[in-house]
Amino acid sequence: MQDIYIEMSVQRAPVSRFELLMDAGSGAQKAGDILIRAFAKTGRYVFIEPMIPAEINPPARTRAALSGVIIRVADFDLMNIGNNTDIILAAHEVVLDRRLDDEEHNPNCRVLLDMGDKKLNEEAYESVCKRVSQLGLSIYPFEVVEEATAIIKSFGGRGKNMYYLGMLSCIYGAPEDVVIQEIKLSFGKKLDETLMSKNVSLFHAGFHYAKENIHFSYEIAGDSHKNGKEKIFIDGNSAVSMGIIDAGIKLISGYPITPASSILHTLASVFSSYGGIVHQAEDEIAAIGTAIGSYFGGVPALTCTSGPGLSLKQEFIGYASAAEIPLIIVDVQRGGPSTGMPTKTEQSDLLAALYGSHGDNTKILISVGDITDCFYAPHLARYLAEKLRLPVFIMSDFQIANSYKVLDKLSVFQMETIEDIPDFIFQHFGLSRLPDHIEMVRTEQADPGTPGKMRRVTGLNTDESGSVNYFSMASQRSHAIRNEKVHHVRRALGKPKLMGREEGDLLVVGWGSARGAIEEAMRFCQQEGLAVSGMCLKIVYPLPLMLKEIFSRFKKVVTVELAYGDEYKIPPLAMFLRSQTLVDVEAMISGATGRPITPRMIRTKVQELLSGCAVR
Amino acid sequence: MAVLSDKSLPENPLTLKDLNTENPRWCPGCGDFGVLMGFKRFLVDEQLPAHMTVNVSGIGCSGRVPFYVNTYGVHAIHGRPIPVALGLALSRPDLNLFVHSGDGDALSIGGNHLIHGINKNFNCNLIIYDNEIYALTKNQSSPTTRKGHPTMTQPKGTFLDPVVPIMFALGLGASFAASTADWLPDHLVNTLKAAYAHKGFSLVHVYQRCPHFDSQNFDTKSSAWLSFLTHEKGIPPDKRFADKAEIIVHDPGNKEQAFKYADSKHTYLGLFYCDPDKPRYDEMLQKRLAETPPRPRSGILDGYKI
């Protein structure tokens, strides 16, 4: 869609994507945040993806310092960050050079390059400008005007982000007064009047510089929030946090880990107002242990983590399954072991979540593909965890966690007990209510404090009375009952929503954050007349019983996933689907670039496949 | 904490029989029997309602204790009973919490949690069953195994000097640190009473016999190798099975002296240190909850409105 526009000075486009590239710590995300709020307030839809280095403050003017924001703005509801960039604004040549390596620019992308640092390395500047031209892109060198430079000097070099914010606001038609209001809200009471007015002056200077000197602009129609419903503007991790409150969860226990920490941060300042406790544990294992302790006490609790933390929690996850203690785990996925790629997105924890821990253990995996999922996943997770008394995962990822979106204000349900969960949430995740009675390994499941029902739980095998019992049939019975709990969910799952027709040449399957890109790609491919349909799983484990039958109606089934795969290595989702359906599912897209899957990547691959090219 | 039933007029007084469940599966002569009996006697003496008591344990011979007491119980995973107990302490401050952990469980695999349990000083009672060996896994060196003692993993003798649990506790700022022994029933019960009366993280270190793997670790026939620390604010001595033990008056407010006793080659039983004023993490969080004006959940998304 965004590829088709006519070259002229004012472009009335339905959608455009731009990016601001700076050194880490220079406030690129702050500027981006202000701008998207202004867009949202003026009736536009936005999707933002922060680019953050793993380090706090890597040396400036190095490739490692690249920090920025990618913003997609449109006059229609956006589901993903889109394909390529129309405008890049770069603070200096190094970050620009680094970012061009990602090849995410449009063929006619415009590059605004701040020449302020040119004297530091003229050669490098020239070489980057040459690179831009060789790529066929247009370069617009500029310098920060003198009056602004003086203010920036007085700020010790800071404040350029406000100048760039001004330029981008002008180019994208964000009204000055709205942006200024957002600047003021953003800095809040932290800044005194003088400092605030200096920031506003920088913004003005940038705005006017662009007005006078940049002779192109993108006009995305405002007032496109047409359905008359109240709108909210929220990111994935905040939506999960608010969902946790609405679901009636009373304790969150975590250990700092990117990108899950922001759930703890968000709740730390508000949870006590809603009767909740935020506990920062001494390690990942303690964090999950404390959630288990709370839930054994009958008080709904949750732990949040990312990949390496998930590895550490595995023993307790298996324990909760065997001891029949409800448990909710949020896994915000990112790349790699140890520090890994904490600020890049991946969907590579699927098998660790599914098959991790020891021995046979049972669990449910809910995945989140958009903000609405993020908000309601805690409700469903709590229902399933308490109803079945087993661990339930909410699988998110860096991209979903950090992407903001404008959407209709969601309904809140203020759950007290799991009986309060509305039908709407079951429909949203595509399953029906579970039977009233679910058999447990141990008949008695009273909470402490209940007289006459004292009971002990253990990882040892027990019989129905809760007594330790190692006899062969007793262990077999426990396994069967625990697995039957999962089978209840299997049977409750309806047919996953198909994007497109019920049969065809190709079915593209994804999960979690891939949904937006699959949806957009499917619309495009179907307009082109290709017999392709899409599917994005919301409950990833267990899978619905009719999945194999659905797969059989397509000549080929492929996955789109952000996890590494190659000729010999089958990536997690493809491996899992093959094992569960015995259908020859292959990965169409399975990368570990850390960058989101784009609609165009899917589109191109689908076109290749359906014109007879081999997978990959 | 739970309201204790009126001891003078118990309606349905808790009895030892009420606390029975199944027969313990420990070896004959195991010190765990003594601790279990002492623990039950303590529950009865204090008349702690069984339904308001939760025993949390890790793995090891001592890990089975919750199974042998008819209260609520969580037999958790190796080394991690303290975080589980913290979850209960934060969410259910009305319950009485006891953590049963061995020397390997508390001081090796669970060392990190012990550090932070002590530092958080949340209200629970930790009983460290110190038999100076990994017994359930069949005779490996533990952090408290005495140097030179042969085990399956260090057959020519354990390499290192043992960790001293009370030193560890005092060094980390424990608000309550006491030692007792499985073969001194009255002292054990009185130690548990003092631990329970202290609000905070009460650490009770129990010297415990393991006749199966190390019948020599404690000479219960003689008692000249141990002394009782006592004080009006402390724990009374118990000479019934330790007639040669010396009795020393020690103020549990004197931390410097406590360190000296803990660091000595001689063995001291009793209350080393107690600080009733150390702030409690659980209390802070609950206070914060109580003091924060509640907000209706209907408005949780209002802050995100455009």
Outline:
With 616 residues, chain A is of the alpha/beta class. Chain A is built from 20 helices and 23 strands.
Describe this structure in words.
The complex is a heterodimer of chains A (616) and B (306). Residues 1-8 of chain A have low confidence and may be disordered. The longest helix of chain A is centred in the first third of the chain and has 21 residues, at 193-213. Helix content of chain A is 39%, strand content 21%. Chain A contains 20 helices and 23 strands. In chain A, helix 17 links the parallel strand 19 and strand 20. In chain A, the strands form five sheets. In chain A, strands 11-10-12-13-15-14-21 form a seven-stranded mixed sheet, with helices on both faces. Chain A has a six-stranded mixed sheet with strand order 3-4-2-5-6-7, sandwiched between helices. Chain A has a five-stranded mixed sheet with strand order 18-20-19-22-23, sandwiched between helices. Chain A folds into three domains: 10-219, Pyruvate-ferredoxin Oxidoreductase, domain 3 (3-Layer(aba) Sandwich), CATH 3.40.920.10; 233-429, Rossmann fold; 498-610, Rossmann fold (3-Layer(aba) Sandwich), CATH 3.40.50. By secondary structure, chain A is an alpha/beta fold. Chain B is α/β, with parallel strands linked by helices. Chain B has helices at residues 31-46, 81-91, 103-109, 111-120, 165-171, 185-197, 255-262, 281-291, and strands at 53-57, 72-75, 96-102, 124-130, 176-181, 201-207, 226-230, 246-249, 267-274. Chain B is built from eight helices and nine strands. Chain B is 27% helix and 17% strand. The termini of chain B are far apart. Chain B has a nine-stranded mixed sheet, with helices on both faces. Chain B has a domain at 27-218 and 271-288: Thiamin diphosphate (ThDP)-binding fold, Pyr/PP domains (Rossmann fold). At the A-B interface, helix 1, strand 9, helix 8, helix 10 and helix 11 of A face strand 1, strand 2, helix 2, helix 4 and helix 8 of B.
